[in-house]
Amino acid sequence: MRKLRVGSVPYINAAPLTRWLETDEATPFVEVVYAPPSVLAQQLQARALDVALVSSVELVRREDVRPVADLCIGSRDAVLSVRLFCKTPLRRVRTVALDTSSLTSVALTQILLARAYGIEAEYQHAAPDLDAMLGQADAALLIGDLGMTAVHPAVREILDLGSAWRTYTGLPFVWALWLANAETPDQPLADLLRRAYQWGKARLETLIDAEAQRTGISRELCEHYLKQVMVYELDESLQAGLTRFLKEYRELRTTAHHAAKK
User: Fold this and answer.
1) 155 touches 106 (CB < 8 A)
2) For 61-112, how does the pLDDT look when each residue is reduced to its tens digit (9 = 90+)?
3) End-to-end CA, the chain
4) DSSP line for 24-90
5) How distant, in Å, are the alpha carbons of 71, 82, 90, 163, 199 from that of 30?
6) How far apart are CA 141 and CA 164, in angstroms?
7) Over the stretch 153-207, which tens digit does the pLDDT of each residue have?
8) pTM over 0.85, yes/no
9) For the sheet containing 173-181, what is the strand order?
10) Residue 152, SS3?
């Protein structure tokens, strides 16, 4: 039997879900590939991966994927690592550079600006380089570890998308979840992913030390992020937030399609 091909984002927030998959106990069964969310989605669709910790928006973009193991990367309020950096006050933003690494956060930015703030913006995709992005747009979306740590002297306002979503809907948000292709068998995959999370949950302090050393981000911030911000078990409230987001995204796509036909 061949190894299961598992894709994950390379950010701090994935560590509790994935680090066991790299141990000698797991490697006979699993091969882990790390890539940004947008690349993981492509690899999953191309069947280069069996399952991936991939953008939640893929549940709309593809009909032939399904959630596995009831695990996710979620937040109940401010997320810290998905932020819109503005060089003008938010209400005056008219052009936005979107991190090409992202899928879900790109969609959420467009939903929030249009529906929560009434902003009609022009969007362009750009590599995650804050200086270059702000050189071509009023605001820049960054995700992941860079989204949590980036600074720039031109930035006048920062919008945390997790906090903005909570204010807009009163709900938590699901950024990513384990999605498998239709033909990928549930077992032993689901059990392996749940086991990986339980292993990571039990060793969280060790993982915090390791991630601080790996990334150069302070241990204090890593600890706060992994203990107080990140949520990994997909409960009813997170499912409600996910359902609301997917509904909003479908409506956004419909509106954009109708506008394009005019």
Assistant:
1) no
2) 998 999 999 999 999 999 999 999 999 999 999 999 999 999 999 999 999 9
3) 53
4) TTTTTTEEEEE--HHHHHHHHHTTS-SEEEEETTHHHH-SSEEEEEEEEEEESS--SSEEEEESS-G
5) 18, 29, 44, 35, 15
6) 14
7) 999 999 999 999 999 999 999 999 999 999 999 889 999 999 999 999 999 999 9
8) yes
9) 30-34, 4-8, 51-55, 173-181, 65-75, 230-233
10) coil
What's the rounded Cα separation, in Å, for the pair 191 and 2?
Answer: 17
Compute the Cα dihedral for 175, 181, 187, 188 and give only its sign.
Answer: negative
Structure tokens, 141? 């979306």
Cα-based angle 34, 39, 40 (whole degrees, multiple of 5): 60
Q: Note the helical H segments in the chain.
A: 15-18, 37-45, 58-61, 104-111, 130-136, 144-149, 161-169, 189-202, 204-215, 219-224, 236-261
- In this structure, what token pair is assigned to residue 218? 């302070």
Q: Is 122 left (phi over 0), alpha (psi -120 to 50) or beta?
A: beta
C-alpha distances (whole Å) from 96 to each of 33, 73, 220 are 30, 25, 31
**Separation between Cα atoms, residue 97 and residue 128, nearest integer Å:** 9
CA distance readout (Å), 138 to 33, 118, 135, 152, 158: 34, 16, 8, 13, 12
